[in-house]
Design goal:
GO terms for molecular function: methylmalonate-semialdehyde dehydrogenase (acylating, NAD) activity. Keywords: NAD, Oxidoreductase. The protein has 498 residues and is of the alpha/beta class. It has helices spanning 40-57, 62-78, 80-91, 95-112, 115-118, 154-165, 180-191, 206-214, 227-239, 262-274, 297-305, 325-340, 376-379, 395-403, 418-427, 463-469, 483-497, and strands at 2-3, 6-8, 11-13, 20-25, 30-36, 122-128, 131-139, 142-146, 169-173, 199-201, 218-224, 243-247, 252-256, 284-290, 344-347, 366-369, 386-392, 407-408, 410-414, 432-435, 451-452, 455-456, 471-479. It folds into two domains: 2-249 and 455-476, Aldehyde Dehydrogenase, Chain A, domain 1; 253-406 and 410-435, Aldehyde Dehydrogenase, Chain A, domain 2 (3-Layer(aba) Sandwich), CATH 3.40.309. Helix content is 40%, strand content 23%. The strands form six sheets. A seven-stranded mixed sheet has the order 15-16-17-14-13-19-20, sandwiched between helices. Strands 10-9-8-11-12-22 form a six-stranded mixed sheet, sandwiched between helices. The protein has a three-stranded mixed sheet with strand order 1-5-4, covered by helices on one side. Strand 9 (169-173), helix 7 (180-191) and strand 10 (199-201) form a beta-alpha-beta unit. Helix 2 (62-78) crosses helix 7 (180-191), helix 3 packs across helix 4 and helix 3 (80-91) packs antiparallel against helix 7 (180-191). The longest helix has 18 residues, at 40-57. The termini are far apart. It binds nicotinamide-adenine-dinucleotide (NAD). Nicotinamide-adenine-dinucleotide is lined by residues 146-151, 173, 175-176, 205-206, 209, 224-226, 229, 232, 247-250, 281, 381, 383, 409, 450, 454. The site of nicotinamide-adenine-dinucleotide has 27 residues, from helix 8 and helix 9.
């Protein structure tokens, strides 16, 4: 049995805790490792060592910090498949999907390597006679990140490379459900030449998170996870006077106009709803068919019947198991509620089995039609391979439906009309919009910009907004004199006084 280490002050150490959390393979429910709930002394050590390291790291020139990211990017690429294999085993993701998780993280590291240009300030010369003003951005200090189970490579990599490239030090508390991938990322970060103490990794749950949310040394907290925890993190962190960005749950709609390309729609809907077993914060969980497009629902059902879950290395599987037996029970109970509340259950994924893997958390593709806004399957984030179909008479009504949703992470429209696409992207109250693209996750030179109940905070993840989040602006106004200018400045000063 592998005991997952902590990473404190630049050393991988075994925790002294008596409280261990099982890490399982969701395809078998076999325990593959144990993660420690870090003790209070270990949490203190992480914070103190991050504070110590900040004193020297902030003085390291920006180009040297960027070079650590360049070496890290090369190492992540070299170990890409090996990381994806670890990730597949602890999340159940298919190998292709796991590789995508790693790759999207590598792209953020590439972006972090451009940190010098991202940290450029502003200058205005001669704001008054002989007076110039410039602004710098400087790191905040110790920052912390709390990450979810569903992207154990990409989401930690949204956070610590950007924060550290900006000159901060960082404490990562990854999901206790899949800590092996973040630990491998940490080993490679050390190998890339990151100095001791710049990154710390602690494990645990609420108790450990509470230390990070309340300790005055920590200046900023990044969180990605569910809505209730996201709200708690935002409220507690800001009450403790920290800067907080909190990315939370979602319910993403895709609007299908009757003039859309039907085959594209069907392919996109299947992949975006059941891909990764629906465990993506940008998964499409509601399909809104406008007008005659609703006649495509039987063909959607047929397309969904053809996909099935399976093991990470089963090339015929479209997706893997859900993360835990508890998650499976929750999704299955929501399916039962949907049926009880009157939705048409066209495909029922409950009781799904996979040959040779009788103990996995499998759920088959599940499709509902006739879903209404009062139903739990509409209001709750299901986080499983379940797609709810709704019908609206026109685009106006589809926009109005989506704008009433408390969530605002991602949305998509499929159409061949530029006018409809423009109206949609202009009027929709959601932070990330796809036009004929089902999952519009931006590349790292933009930012990941969820809205409404899907995000609490001001500055978003990666891109220029992350640099603003992890830095403080200092504005310097200075006056230097040449002897002639001095005389002139003094003359002007005395004129002003008169
Ligand atoms: P979660 O909220 O259960 O856990 C996230 C993190 O918070 C974990 O590290 C966990 O240990 C910690 N945590 C759990 N309970 C806590 C508590 N009471 N107090 C303090 N910390 C606590 O989320 P999850 O199940 O790991 O991840 C799935 C959720 O994440 C989904 O809702 C999904 O939509 C969301 N998500 C959002 C985005 C986004 O960008 N908006 C991206 C990925 C995932």
């Amino acid at each position: 049995m592998k005991n997952v280490p902590l990473y404190l002050a630049g050393e991988f150490v075994q925790s002294q805790t008596s409280d261990w959390i099982d890490v399982t393979n969701p395809a078998t429910n076999e325990v593959i490792a144990r993660a420690p709930a870090a003790t209070d002394a270990e949490m203190r050590k992480a914070i103190e060592s991050a504070a110590d390291a900040f004193r020297t790291w902030k003085e390291v020139p920006v180009s040297e910090r960027a070079r650590v990211m360049l070496r890290y990017q090369a190492l992540l690429k070299e170990h890409h498949d090996e990381i994806a294999e670890i990730l597949s085993q602890e999340t159940g993701k298919t190998f292709d999907d796991a590789k995508g998780d790693v790759w999207r993280g590598i792209e953020v590291v590439e972006h972090a390597a451009n940190v010098a240009s991202l940290m450029m300030g502003e200058t205005v010369g001669n704001v008054a006679r002989s007076v110039d003003t410039h602004s710098w951005i400087q790191p905040l200090g110790v920052c912390a990140g709390i990450t979810p189970f569903n992207f154990p490579a990409m989401i930690p990599l949204w956070m610590f490379p950007m924060a550290i490239a900006c000159g901060n030090t960082f404490i990562l508390k990854p999901s206790e459900q899949d800590p092996l991938t973040p630990m491998r990322l940490t080993e490679l970060f050390e190998e890339a030449g990151a100095p001791k103490g710049v990154l710390q990794v602690v494990h645990g749950g609420k108790e450990q998170v509470d230390v990070l949310l309340t300790d005055p040394v920590i200046k900023a907290v990044s969180f990605v996870g569910s809505v209730p925890v996201g709200r708690y993190i935002y409220e507690t962190g800001t009450r403790n006077m920290k800067r907080v960005q909190s990315f939370a749950g979602a319910k993403n709609h895709m609007v299908i106009m009757p003039d859309a390309d039907k085959q594209q729609v069907l392919n996109a809907l299947v992949g975006a709803s059941v891909g990764a077993a629906g465990q993506r914060c940008m998964a499409i969980s509601v399909a809104v068919f406008v007008g005659e497009a609703q006649s495509w629902i039987p063909e959607l059902k047929e397309a969904m019947t053809k996909v099935r879950p399976g093991a990470w290395n089963d090339s015929g599987a479209s997706y893997g198991p859900v993360i835990s037996p508890k998650a499976r029970e929750r999704v299955e109970s929501l399916i039962a509620t949907g049926e009880a509340q009157g939705a048409n259950l066209l495909l029922d994924g409950r009781g799904c089995t996979v040959d040779g893997l009788p103990d996995g958390n499998w759920i088959g593709p599940t499709l509902f039609s006739g879903v209404t806004t009062e139903m739990n399957i509409y209001n709750e984030e299901i986080f499983g391979p379940v797609l709810a179909c709704m019908e609206e008479a026109n685009l106006e009504d589809a926009i109005s439906l989506i704008n009433k949703s408390p969530y605002g992470n991602g949305v998509s429209i499929f159409t061949s009309s530029g006018g409809a696409a423009r109206k949609f992207q202009h009027e929709i109250e959601v932070g990330q919009v796809g036009v004929n693209i089902p999952i519009p996750v931006p590349l790292p030179f933009f930012s990941f910009t969820g809205w409404k109940g899907s995000f609490y905070g001001d500055q978003h993840a990666y891109g220029k907004q992350a640099v603003r989040f992890y830095t403080e602006t200092k504005t310097v106004t200075s006056r230097w004199f040449s002897s002639e200018a001095t005389a002139e400045a003094e003359a002007n000063f005395s004129i002003q006084l008169r």
